[in-house]
Amino acid sequence: MAIARWSIGLLLGVLLWLGLGQYVEAQSEARIDSRLNRLESELGRLRSQVRQIDSQLSIPNRPAPSLPTVT
User: Fold this and answer.
1) By C-alpha distance, which of 31, 32, 11, 29 is closest to 21?
2) Alpha helix (H) residue ranges in the chain
3) SS3 62
4) Is residue 58 left, alpha or beta, with left meaning phi > 0 and alpha meaning psi from -120 to 50?
5) How many other β-carbons are positioned within 10 Å of the β-carbon of residue 19?
6) Residue 46: what pLDDT?
């Protein structure tokens, strides 16, 4: 009888440990997703500011200088 109780306790402990692990992992993923969304939003805002500054400066797109060829 004691072995059965011990086995059941061990099984419940393992299931609880696995469940808590999945919960913690899900919470971590949610935090990472939230941070990623904020960073993507900030990146979009910064890109918009760069486009606005470029249009204010009206810098023409110039082709890159050609490199000398080695013969």
Assistant:
1) 29
2) 2-57
3) coil
4) left
5) 10
6) 93
Q: Is the entire prediction scored with pTM above 0.85?
A: no
What average pLDDT does the structure give for the chain?
A: 84
- In the block, tokens 């990146």 appear at 43
End-to-end CA distance of the chain: 90
Say yes or no to pLDDT of 39 above 70. yes
Alpha carbons 24 and 18: distance in angstroms, whole number: 10
User: What's the full length of the chain, in residues?
Assistant: 71
Q: For residue 24, what are its two tokens?
A: 């913690």
Tokens representing residue 54 in the block: 């470029």
Q: Enter the tokens of residue 28.
A: 């971590």
